[in-house]
């Protein structure tokens, strides 16, 4: 990764791999544009037992996010499986710890988006995405969903919403992303990257 290029942070929690697969598609969309890179980061699970600890580096996949990953990003995508129409606790726990960035206005006017995966078709995809945007708005970020110029929104029979990409993982959470879900996640990443570059220029001209 080049230190000189702006990056879009793709921050996710994935239990069975579906949300991680979506994050990788968003990353591909981000990196389809020149002049910007994707940075994949995850968060550790949380435990009700305070003595439980995980290694500082995960056994596989993306490394754990830090506040500096957020502080210096040009754009942000957050992804989570659905938990009763809301994001999973590990991602919420991480976002709850970003008050330092909120106090300093570090994320103001940066573009952001969200994506999710559910086991059932009506398992809370849209509710989860809508609740995920709330902390982003508190940070002063500019939310970017998926416009209907992405025709897959009218064709999909599984995941895909104007609030962000989504995926139907099935009751065993083992269904792969289908063609429409893959396309929409890619488009979402590409749009976020385009906005990140544009808004970065605007922020620089205001400073």
From TrEMBL:
Taxonomic lineage of the native organism: Bacteria, Pseudomonadati, Pseudomonadota, Gammaproteobacteria, Oceanospirillales
E.C. number(s) listed in UniProt: 1.6.5.2
Originating organism: Halomonas alimentaria
Domain (Flavodoxin-like) ranges: 8-192
GO molecular function term, any single one: electron transfer activity
Cofactor: FMN
Official protein name in the record: NAD(P)H:quinone oxidoreductase
Broad class of enzyme this protein falls into: oxidoreductase
Family the UniProt entry places it in: Belongs to the WrbA family.
Pfam families cross-referenced by the UniProt entry: FMN_red (PF03358)
Stored PROSITE patterns: FLAVODOXIN, FLAVODOXIN_LIKE
Keywords recorded for this protein, A-Z: Flavoprotein, FMN, Oxidoreductase
GO cellular component: membrane
Family annotation (PANTHER family): FLAVODOXIN-RELATED PROTEIN WRBA-RELATED, FLAVOPROTEIN-LIKE PROTEIN YCP4-RELATED
């Amino acid at each position: 990764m080049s230190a000189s290029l702006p990056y879009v942070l793709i921050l996710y929690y994935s239990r069975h791999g579906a949300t991680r697969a979506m994050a990788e598609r968003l990353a591909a969309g981000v990196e389809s544009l020149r002049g910007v890179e994707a940075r994949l980061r995850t968060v550790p699970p949380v435990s009700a037992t305070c003595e439980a600890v995980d290694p500082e580096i995960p056994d596989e996949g993306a490394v754990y996010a830090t506040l500096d990953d957020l502080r210096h990003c040009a754009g942000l995508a957050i992804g989570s499986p659905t938990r009763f129409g809301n994001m999973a606790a590990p991602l919420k726990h991480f976002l709850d710890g970003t008050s330092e960035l909120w106090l300093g206005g570090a994320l103001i006017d940066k573009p952001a988006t969200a994506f999710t995966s559910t086991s059932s078709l009506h398992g809370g995809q849209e509710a989860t995405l809508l609740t995920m945007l709330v902390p982003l708005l508190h940070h002063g970020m500019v939310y970017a969903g998926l416009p209907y110029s992405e025709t897959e929104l009218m064709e999909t029979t599984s995941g895909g919403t104007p609030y962000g990409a989504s995926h139907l993982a099935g009751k065993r959470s083992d269904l792969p992303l289908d063609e429409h879900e893959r396309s929409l996640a890619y488009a979402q990443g590409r749009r976020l990257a385009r906005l990140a570059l544009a808004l970065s220029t605007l922020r620089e001209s205001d400073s």
